[in-house]
Amino acid sequence: MGIYKEEHDIFRGTVKKFIEKEVLPNIDEWEEKGEVPRSLWKKCGEMGFLGMCLDEKYGGLEVGFEYTAVLVEEFGKVNACMPVVGTGDILAPYIRDFGTEELKMRYLSRFTKGDLIPAIAMTEPNTGSDLKGVRTSAISDGDDYIINGQKTFITNGNTCDMMIVVCKTNPDSNSLSNAFSLIIVDDGTTGFIKGRKLNKMGMHMQDTAEIFFEDCHVPKANLIGEEGKGFGYLMSELQKERLVMVMWGQAMAEAMLQMGIDYAKSREAFGQPIATFQHNAFKIADMATQVQLGRSLINELIIDFIAGKDIVVKVSMAKLYVGEMANNIAAKSFQLHGGYGFMEEYPIARYYRDIRAMSVYAGSSEIMRLVIARSLGIEPT
């Protein structure tokens, strides 16, 4: 069973043309500035790239996940603008699926036009994968919540216009089932403080920041869904986020494999292309096999997701495999480039830096192993 039809292929051509015109000429500038400009969000909105899964009344296209897959694959190949193209299917569904109609109209319609940059804040300085450790609190005060706490590693943290914040609204509970809520905080709200832009090893064009909340008063109307149900909402949407991240990593792996092949075919040593040395030829054969296994798994995942199947375990396996595999491909392609791989003028240098985070964000490899082990009836200690 195939995934893509003629209309998807046409859309892919449109995305490629957009990338060639609006993205590739600007990557170096965006890397240096540490963020992509708002103008790109606006252009993506005009193209319909933002919130494609959303209803037309919110400015979406109401198209299938196949279009998201095409978009993520093409932008992933050039390793640029992930926070822009991935947001529509990672953040917008929280409001679409659980928010009030007032919240949907207020935020989704602006997002799909590219007029609003969103963010989500889960991670805290001492809390990554263990959500039980979240300390950011939201205490009821009449018609408001008063939020206090700190978040870190927040994508779009400095540039965002609104942020979905994971807060503890039931301070006496240690249960994930009723302790946490999702609350929207608008930029400019008193007590909502954007901290320093974090200086990362890679992914330089992706704005990542620290966030602070100091007696931040937010209307209770900004609560997404029901109070105390936040963890359930996160679990229902995180699998889609992981699928998007896995598709991105796979696209990068495919691009890095091709970089290695192209360079090894063109670079000569001792009178012959280095690709023809048996060691390199076998290395490339192994790389190609690993990448193809990832592609087969992801295509199967996309089909299952579109069919509405439970993908929790399989997407965890894919996240584990692709995260580790893509890092391996990066290292081997880098090595094939020799000294030139260390030069910024060759794309492999940027990909090598950026892919390292793939085995950490959206659930580390260790957490994925834990999920998989538990699905097999094993409880690691």
Average of pLDDT? 95
Low-pLDDT sequence parts: none
User: How many helical elements?
Assistant: 13
Shape, per Cα inertia axes: globular
Helix and strand composition category: alpha+beta
Strand order of the largest sheet: 1-4-5-8
Radius of gyration: 21 Å
Distance between the termini: 40 Å
Number of strands: 10
Strand content: 15-25%
- What's the architecture of the largest domain, going by CATH? Up-down Bundle
- Classified by CATH, the class of the largest domain is Mainly Alpha
Descriptors for this entry?
Butyryl-Coa Dehydrogenase, subunit A, domain 1, 4-stranded antiparallel β-sheet, alpha+beta, 3 domains, 49% helix, 381 residues, Butyryl-CoA Dehydrogenase, subunit A, domain 3, Butyryl-CoA Dehydrogenase, subunit A, domain 2
SSE layout and pairing:
Elements: H1 6-23, H2 27-33, H3 38-47, H4 65-78, H5 82-85, H6 87-90, H7 92-98, H8 101-112, E1 118-121, E2 137-141, E3 144-155, E4 162-168, E5 180-186, E6 192-197, E7 208-219, E8 223-224, H9 230-266, E9 268-269, E10 272-273, H10 278-306, H11 312-336, H12 347-355, H13 365-375
Parallel strand pairs: 1-4
Antiparallel strand pairs: 2-3, 3-7, 4-5, 5-8, 6-7, 9-10
